[in-house]
Every structure is written in structure tokens, then in C-alpha cells.
């Protein structure tokens, strides 16, 4: 399978984000019963036991990306996830098909890096993701990544995204560039790696969000836009 890399040009960036962005799931696995063989989510990893700040992004009714709610009316996700328009979100549920709170996006703000903020049409009561500051994450640190993306390097990702929120441990390897040449945090595979549909989801370090999923080679390396580097922009738009 072709490896997707981080590129400098806009055209190549459009290719690299395909490593994460994917069609909506039409079939999904359920959490394994006791004694049953586990279906591996993300690629590897496991099922999240908690993620009250998690939001599943839908574009024109199709489940496409992951995101987080960071304030009552604000969603944080990847820029390449919001280009299709018609945005809506299921917020605060581990199950992308039910539960939580549904809200629509009414205004979208994008950064030159692979970041987007979406203002909701209503105030949502939730546990909001706390955003990290510079120094919140270090090289060699074990961090967690979350999303509803593909569970294998399948040929048709429409049939292999997870119904339930997944989590994997990865190890920070240093700074790098995201799909739009923005500041990013690179990490190597731990017990799993991100794939299609995990785009826009969070990288969490000690309980605070430090990154937004941008690219992945689906095998060993993933790049997350560095939230801590863009705190002033997020503050200026969303007030958090």
C-alpha cells in the first residue's frame, strides 16, 4: 500500500491528508464480549472507556472525521475536514451512531495550518477538552490519540471504520509539519496508529489536548497539528 507523507505544496498536502480522511462507515464492529476475540480499532489500540469531549464530525450527513468540543459553542478539528460543508456533530458519545448531543455548525474559521474552529448553532453542556500550553508535551512522552477511523489498512474504508471511539498509545518523536506545512507533533506507533476517519481527533498528553490529527502513514508515523503553538489564534476566535 502506498505510504502517505507530509508534503510542502498544497497539491501534495491534499494527497497526504487522505491518510486520515475517509468516507462514512457503513458497517462497524461492536466492543468485544468477554472471551471473544477483539476487533482491533484505530489500527491496533483499543476501545476508549471515556471521552466526554469527543465529537464525531458529519459533512452533509456523512460521518467523516473526528473532533473535540472545547467550549459550549466551539468545536476544534482539522482544516481538511471542513471543506465539504454541511457540518454537524454528535458530541459526548462513544457511539458515533447514537447518544450524546447533536448540533450543527453555523460558522467555520480556518488557520493556515491544519486547524479549524466551528461555531455551533446551540450551546452544548459537556466536559470540554482542556487545551495544552507550550511545554505540555515532550519528546519521548507516551500520549494518547482518539478517533472513529479505519481499523485496518482495508481497501474500502467505508466498511472498516469503528462505530465506537478508539484510543491508541503513541510516542512523541519531535516536531514536524502537518498537511499544510503548519507546526506539528510527530509520533511513532505504540499499540496502534491513526488511519482514515481519525482526522481532526485529539492527541492528549496528561489529560490535555496538545494536537489535532492531520496525517498518517497508517503504519509507523502520525503527525498532529500542534495545538500549543496556535493557542493565541484559538483564543482570539473561540475565547478559550
TrEMBL record:
Q: Which residues cross the membrane?
A: none
InterPro entries the UniProt entry points to: Peptidase_S1 (IPR050430), Peptidase_S1_PA (IPR009003), Peptidase_S1_PA_chymotrypsin (IPR043504), Peptidase_S1A (IPR001314), Trypsin_dom (IPR001254)
Q: Mind telling me which PROSITE patterns this protein's record contains?
A: TRYPSIN_DOM (PS50240)
Which is one GO molecular function term here?
hydrolase activity
Domain Peptidase S1 residue range list: 42-239
- Where does the secretion signal sit in this chain? 1-27
Pfam families with a match to the protein in the record: Trypsin (PF00089)
Q: Which UniProt keywords apply?
A: Disulfide bond, Hydrolase, Signal
Source taxon at top rank:
Bacteria
The cross-references to PANTHER family, in alphabetical order and at most eight, read: AT26814P-RELATED (PTHR24276:SF91), POLYSERASE-RELATED (PTHR24276)
- Which family does the record assign? Belongs to the peptidase S1 family.
Name used for this protein in its record = Hydrolase
Which lineage is the organism of this entry classified under, starting from the top rank?
A: Bacteria, Bacillati, Actinomycetota, Actinomycetes, Kitasatosporales
Amino acid at each position: 500500500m502506498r505510504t502517505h507523507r507530509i508534503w510542502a505544496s498544497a497539491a501534495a498536502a491534499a494527497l497526504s491528508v487522505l491518510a486520515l480522511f475517509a468516507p462514512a462507515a457503513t458497517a462497524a464492529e461492536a466492543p468485544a464480549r468477554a472471551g471473544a476475540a477483539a476487533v482491533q480499532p484505530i489500527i491496533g489500540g483499543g476501545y476508549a472507556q471515556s471521552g466526554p469531549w469527543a465529537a464525531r464530525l458529519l459533512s452533509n450527513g456523512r460521518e467523516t472525521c473526528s473532533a473535540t468540543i472545547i467550549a459550549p459553542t466551539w468545536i476544534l478539528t482539522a482544516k481538511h475536514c471542513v471543506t465539504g460543508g454541511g457540518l454537524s456533530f454528535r458530541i459526548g458519545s462513544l457511539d458515533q451512531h447514537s447518544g450524546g448531543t447533536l448540533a450543527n455548525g453555523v460558522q467555520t474559521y480556518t488557520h493556515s495550518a491544519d486547524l479549524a474552529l466551528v461555531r455551533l448553532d446551540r450551546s452544548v453542556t459537556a466536559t470540554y477538552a482542556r487545551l495544552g500550553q507550550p511545554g505540555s508535551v515532550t519528546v519521548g512522552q507516551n500520549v494518547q490519540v482518539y478517533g472513529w477511523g479505519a481499523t485496518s489498512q482495508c481497501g474500502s474504508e467505508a466498511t472498516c471504520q469503528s462505530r465506537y471511539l478508539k484510543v491508541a498509545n503513541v510516542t512523541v518523536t519531535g516536531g514536524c509539519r502537518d498537511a499544510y506545512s503548519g507546526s506539528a507533533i510527530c509520533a511513532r506507533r505504540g499499540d496502534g496508529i491513526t488511519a482514515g476517519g481519525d482526522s481532526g481527533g485529539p492527541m492528549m498528553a496528561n489529560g490535555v489536548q496538545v494536537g489535532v490529527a492531520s496525517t498518517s502513514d497508517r503504519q509507523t508515523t502520525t503527525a498532529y497539528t500542534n495545538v500549543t503553538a496556535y493557542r493565541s489564534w484559538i483564543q482570539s476566535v473561540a475565547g478559550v
